[in-house]
């Protein structure tokens, strides 16, 4: 029996757990399942429960919950020794006060990122000591509300263009996000960046190869990776910036296209495991799924 907690993936048994903690009834069904399908927004409690009591769970979110937030991602990049800009993760302002002296004295500019947030909403370019003080004041305000943690990251020139590699199961899709307004820092589509699927195919392939190897080692199979390219004396090399477990779908053709892709990849994942949905579900299910 295949169990789905995903509202857009119909399986043999289907449960909606959004907005609540999993309970004993959920656990009883999980224990009988051969595989569990979870939504992108699943709580850690549901993921841990599913992993503990079912052998096969999609997506694989071990790295998401073992290395949470941007501070966790920085530590994951370091643990797996993958190329990324030099990054200093801080659990809170007290941690920063103790360790900031270890950072390079001539390190500006830097990029400041709060531990959470997407589409560049919590990312600031630090050009001066005043910029840094303002960012730390923002961190202090969030800390008073219970939200802690931030990173400082070496600024890599050329940040008007980043490569997004969207990973859906075994399928990897790479496209550029290009910010043509040079007064705007960041390349999120929400901030006006345009999508380009065609430019610099050799660099796109280098980014795809790096992301594919990272997924092989980390087992991540549903995420959007952001990469930037650094020019050295001998080469142009991709660097990981961050992992987005919630990612925009515009570059993938929109939500309908994404969910159709997701359905196909989950079906393929089940097939690779030697599992399948019941014939009744297969016959009744539509060819595509939407929001």
What is the mean predicted local confidence, pLDDT? 92
Could you tell me the number of beta strands?
A: 13
Shape, per Cα inertia axes: globular
Provide the number of structural domains: 3
In CATH, the topology of the largest domain is named D-amino Acid Aminotransferase, Chain A, domain 1
- What's the story with the biggest beta sheet? 5 strands, antiparallel
Strand arrangement, largest sheet? 11-10-9-12-13
Structural class: alpha+beta
CATH architectural designation of the largest domain: 2-Layer Sandwich
Uncertain runs with pLDDT below 50, 5 residues or more? none
Radius of gyration: 21 Å
CATH C-level name of the largest domain = Alpha Beta
Annotated CATH homologous superfamily of the largest domain: ATP-grasp fold, B domain
If you had to describe this structure to a student in words, what would you say it looks like?
By secondary structure, the chain is of the alpha+beta class. It has helices at about 25-30, 45-55, 60-65, 70-80, 95-100, 130-145, 200-220, 255-270, 280-285; strands at about 1-5, 15, 35, 55-60, 85-90, 110-115, 125, 150-155, 160-170, 170-180, 195, 220-230, 235-245. It has nine helices and 13 strands. The strands form three sheets. The protein has a five-stranded antiparallel sheet with strand order 11-10-9-12-13. Strands 2-1-3-4 form a four-stranded parallel sheet, sandwiched between helices. A hairpin with a 4-residue loop joins strand 12 and strand 13 (about 235-245). It is globular. The chain starts with a strand and ends in a 7-residue tail after the last helix. Keywords: ATP-binding, Nucleotide-binding. GO terms for molecular function: ATP binding; metal ion binding; ribosomal S6-glutamic acid ligase activity.
